[in-house]
């Protein structure tokens, strides 16, 4: 059974339209005018226990709004959600016992007390059995290196220390599912790497389901095995990252080692409409080709018709470029809707 299930999930915000000045305020008071922003529209999500899912999309696509609805912070305008079989808004108290949340821009830590006391407070709120608490705290502290700053107040922590403590708090009560909204935002490379390792390990060892939003491509690639892309409030892709790359990255590059001169080869086949020779030398050539129009075998056959192919290699699709295009709205993947 799915641990996260959302059907026809929608959220429409009402924004007040006010003219400037006192007259505008009065006018709004007498006859308020609102515009509607459809932040999330008919979203369907079904996530099985133990999955690691990246929820990505350009700024304003509706990621945070979705997470806020899934965690019970916001009431949906329409649709249904079940997290661990519960409605996160209606059964909010019960649901938080089995769920963890980290918002990269906010903290769960109490600002003026030592970090260690935030942990004991949460232990009491969640009623974690003493032995389990001790075990979990030692484990999380070890994995995230919390020891050196457990005695400091949250206000004295660096951003990286604060985020590590926040992550440990989110996992302290053995939640079955954890939502992470930009967990690595603003952190340096070493801390980001440590957090990614932590997430992979906790997913592997404890089977915790993770849904994360991130603009960091390494987070997506390293931690998640599934990608859900939202754009203008609508899911435009839900499936394996690799499957999407296979479908969407049209252009492949093949590097050939030839028994003959690559420059002659380039002259002969360079006019082919579905390929471009991007480099050629005495015994080599590199070709960019449209993989929907030509197969690797077609290229080899073409090359063999002008000389002899000694060896070849095909470059992997460029994940960075691909996701960047998705974020910048340059790639239309709407035809790939649905799980791959
Ligand atoms: N409280 C709010 N009131 C009105 N409109 C809102 C509110 N929160 C978000 N919006 C609007 O809803 C849309 C989706 O916003 P949301 O924050 O969910 O996007 P996002 O994908 O998380 O963006 P980002 O990557 O920039 O964090 C945007 O148009 C945003 O301006």
Could you outline the blueprint of secondary structure elements for this entry?
Elements: E1 4-16, H1 21-30, E2 34-47, E3 52-56, H2 63-70, E4 78-83, H3 92-96, E5 99-103, H4 115-126, H5 130-144, H6 159-171, E6 177-181, H7 189-206, E7 209-213, H8 217-223, E8 226-231, E9 234-239, H9 241-248, E10 251-258, H10 262-269, E11 275-281, E12 284-290, H11 296-306, E13 309-314, H12 319-327
Parallel strand pairs: 3-7, 3-8, 5-6, 6-7
Antiparallel strand pairs: 1-2, 1-4, 8-9, 10-12, 10-13, 11-12
Helix pairs in contact: 5-6
Bound molecules: adenosine-5'-triphosphate (ATP).
What does this structure look like?
The protein is an alpha/beta fold. The chain has two domains: about 5-245, P-loop containing nucleotide triphosphate hydrolases (Rossmann fold); about 250-315, 2-Layer Sandwich (Alpha-Beta Plaits), CATH 3.30.70. About 35% of the residues lie in helices and about 25% in strands. It has twelve helices and 13 strands. The chain has helices at about 20-30, 65-70, 90-95, 115-125, 130-145, 160-170, 190-205, 215-225, 240-250, 260-270, 295-305, 320-325, and strands spanning about 5-15, 35-45, 50-55, 80-85, 100-105, 175-180, 210-215, 225-230, 235-240, 250-260, 275-280, 285-290, 310-315. The strands form three sheets. The protein has a six-stranded mixed beta sheet with strand order 5-6-7-3-8-9, sandwiched between helices. Helix 5 packs antiparallel against helix 6. The radius of gyration is 26 Å and the shape is globular. The two termini are about 20 Å apart. Adenosine-5'-triphosphate (ATP) binds near residues 37, 39 and 60.
